[in-house]
Amino acid sequence: MPPISAPPPEGFDELLRWLNENREQATEAYLDLRRGLVKIFIWNQCSDPEGLTDQVFDRVMRKLPSLRDVYEGNPRLYFYAVANNLIKEQRKLAKSQIPVDDIDIPIENSLVDEEPLEMRNECLEMCLQALDAEKRDLILSYYSKEKRDKFVHRAEMARRLGVSIGTLRVRMLRIRDKLEECIEHCLDEKMKNA
Hints:
The chain is mainly alpha-helical. The protein is built from 9 helices and no strands. The protein starts with 10 loop residues before the first helix and ends with a helix.
């Protein structure tokens, strides 16, 4: 498979203009389309509906410069076709993987169940402070909105940073992984000293 190039930073604005010249109506169309795509992936039992939806938008944004001049008809249909291709790719990938449903995996006693919530919150605060200011602000902003607002907020964050939504998700995943590692280390230390 050829390497995937990131969509251009202005890609999100161009995508909105393709959906509708009026920015407000384009935003509504984007949110409606996003909800529809997530539902399609859920109905098709895909493991990461939001991530796959981000991939649809990333793929369309990469194609948009050449697509806009030649595509005729409702842009939504193009998004649905891309989603359909992703579903086929997911099914093909799933067939090549070995199911682990019948394997008994021993579950270790997790410290998360045993430690007080207060201790976990202390570790979270300490680990957030250990991050550099840019990463701390980024992760706090990324998780600051809920439901419908989070999609627009995250898209706006990606646009401001000049990256695709998928790239932003990867950055947040890396920061979150570091935070989780830091929190676990902190909890281990607190349990040793308790």
